[in-house]
Amino acid sequence: MGLPYIHISEAATEILSYMDRRRTGVVHSLRTKWEKFNNLCMGGIEPNSIYTFAGVSGSGKSSFLNMLESDLFEENPKANFVILSFNFEMLASRQVGRKLSNVLNKTTQQLYSGLTYDKLSNEDLEKASEAVENIKRLPIYYVDVPGTVDDIRNTILEFSKLEFVKDKWLVITLDHTLLTKGKSGEKEREILANLQYMFMEIKKFKQNTIIQLSQMNREIENTDRLSNPSMHFPTRRDIFGGESVFQASDYVFVIHRPELLLLRTYGPANWPVANLVYLHCLKNREGELKVLTFENNLQYNRITECKPTSTNPASLQLFN
Q: How far apart are CA 125 and CA 180, in angstroms?
């Protein structure tokens, strides 16, 4: 049996209806707290799209995704959506701990009384309890146990059929791609390619959105690149399995903290690095390629957009 097909007239009618519903606000993106990110990405997080965020270890990928999860509900109180989070790297309870860190403006080390001289007070615990009650109301569901591509697909399809989910926008997150288990004999790149093919299929169901985290390879840490400012910026080749990720994704970003690589300035324009996070947009199906600049408050699991200055631009047009 062959694949299904439609006449161009159906596609034309569908896109015209989509344009009208976007124009009148019937269809809209999920806004984030980052206005420049929203402007770059069709107003925020789009339905039927795949977003990839890559970075080196310690760049803040997981904190970024954790913050994005919570902010989507805060910024879109009337939106009808559910998050299914494949959280393969950390325990779900520790993800909630990061949300508390953001809300209470305390490091997770402080929250967990990890310092012998700075134990959590009764008052702090009361504030945490109040914050937890609000967090409990969020429709976020965690999958802690790593699985194969088939496991992930089946879980999504089964979850989508649940009564409280089936008529809602489903935002699926994965932290991160390289922790997906393989079948016997499968290599990492093969697993990653199969995962991307599966996500391309899943994103077309109803109102599904995929947000996945991926890893950078070690090329960006090469001494020759570090010593040459014109080679500081990440490229698609720096993302592990970059070709399959680029093929599948509608948006590809690299979260980069140059100070982790001991750089004193960043790029040919000598951008500052202290307490800054740069978000490089390497692929954007509907818009421009830019670099967004954020202030690093990752100790509280938070980043905030910077205002542009002559030495620290909040956005820069990239030409690839």
A: 36
**Rounded-to-integer distance, Cα 119 and Cα 106, Å:** 12
**φ, ψ at 26 (rounded to 5°):** -65, -40
Q: Which CATH superfamily is domain 8-252 in?
A: P-loop containing nucleotide triphosphate hydrolases (3.40.50.300)
Let me know: does 263 contact 232? Beta carbons within 8 Å: yes
CA dihedral angle for residue 298, residue 300, residue 303, residue 306, rounded to 10 degrees: -100
Q: Where residue 268 falls among pLDDT bands split at 50, 70, 90?
A: very high
Segment 46-78, tens digit of pLDDT: 999 999 999 988 888 888 999 999 999 999 999
* Six-digit token string for 285: 């199906």
- Residue 274 near residue 306, CB atoms below 8 Å: no
The answer to whether the beta carbons of residues 298 and 277 sit under 8 Å apart is yes
Instruction: Find where tokens 């399959």 sit.
Output: 244
266 close to 272: Cβ distance less than 8 angstroms: yes
Mean pLDDT of 266-288: 93
Give percent helix, percent strand, percent coil of the chain, each to the nearest 5.
40, 20, 40
